[in-house]
Model the fold of this input.
Amino acid sequence: DSGVTQTPKHLITATGQRVTLRCSPRSGDLSVYWYQQSLDQGLQFLIQYYNGEERAKGNILERFSAQQFPDLHSELNLSSLELGDSALYFCASSVTGGDYYNEQFFGPGTRLTVL
Amino acid sequence: GQNIDQPTEMTATEGAIVQINCTYQTSGFNGLFWYQQHAGEAPTFLSYNVLDGLEEKGRFSSFLSRSKGYSYLLLKELQMKDSASYLCAVRERYSGAGSYQLTFGKGTKLSVIP
Done:
């Protein structure tokens, strides 16, 4: 158990819908990262927040957005869902987003299925 | 941008040694990580290299050559529970102060057979 929690564990929805995935980082961690993992693409970095502010942006679609709240939990919002958005979505956290060695601890993931 | 290559699949025998290679091309290199991921589960951290050389941690060792853009993960005394995917990830400075991005390879699926 990494100490990172994600809800829900599974989510099944239809194309065109909108969903929200939730992540609580380990106690004391200020950075939250979101990743998408599909069978053909591997683990893709989406976005990072540090202490409530966006810090880095990867291959995140415009239909996707995220935020980090004052209590440091984060939400990833996926809208206008398409079949290709079906994937495992992981949240990870780390102590800082800074200059030195900074291990990321991964949550158990949310499996999203778009029908 | 980055390009990270690792073999798609490998098979090895219980008790043996296996080496999983990773090559990368990147600018702003700031470290290389290896993660283990069992099917449907979260990646878990195995090792980190930022300087050239070998880092040993029990049955697992990781090597880095920055000039060659090359790393390997060495697993000794293989056990059945080592059957998993092994992800090579390169840490690169993101355009912005004090921010880094991890880019993962597609992973190597290791099957350990009796």
Observations:
- DSSP finds no helices and eleven strands in chain B.
- The interface with chain A takes residues 31, 33, 40-45, 48, 50, 87, 89, 94, 96, 98-107 of chain B (CB under 8 Å).
- Chain B has a mean pLDDT of 92.
- The two ends of chain B are 40 Å apart (CA to CA).
